[in-house]
Amino acid sequence: MVPGDALRWSCEGSNALLQEGATPLLSPESLLAALGPGPLAAARSASMPLDRSRSSAERNPSLLRCVDEGLTLEQLSAALSCSPTQVAHELLQLELEGVIEPKPGLRWRSV
After folding, report:
1. Which CATH number fits domain 56-110: 1.10.238, 3.10.10, 3.40.50, 1.10.10?
2. What string of H, E and C letters represents the secondary structure of the chain?
3. How high is the pLDDT of residue 1?
4. Which pLDDT band, with edges at 50, 70 and 90, does 39 fall under?
5. Using CA atoms, how far apart are residues 96 and 33, in angstroms rounded to an integer?
6. pLDDT, tens digit (0-9, with 9 covering 90-100), for 4-37
7. Where are the domains of the chain?
8. What is the C-alpha separation between 74 and 94, in angstroms, rounded?
């Protein structure tokens, strides 16, 4: 028995994913089991220490300068010698603080 009718075009995608090894999620519990226990704490880089006493903009003026140059996430990561995960976290904080806004192509601009 196949998950979807093998002769139906609307089932081609899901059947192909299963053939490639995808795990079917048949209930919310199976989704939670597939996700695992949760995120692991990321190692902090010395160049972007965690400091909640100041705003993200005050903590990372070099990030704001690079954002204003129109760099992509990968370019920001390389320019700041930080992982894309760390840069994305700081960018999210800046967005939440209303300092920057997203643009197409994984770019941002100051507000």
Report:
1. 1.10.10
2. CCCCCCCCHHHHHHHHHHHCCCCCCCCHHHHHHHHCCCCCCCCCCCCCCCCCCCCHHHHCHHHHHHHHCCCCHHHHHHHHCCCHHHHHHHHHHHHHCCCEEEECCCEEEEC
3. 45
4. low
5. 30
6. 888 888 889 888 888 888 888 888 888 888 887 7
7. 1-36, 56-110
8. 17
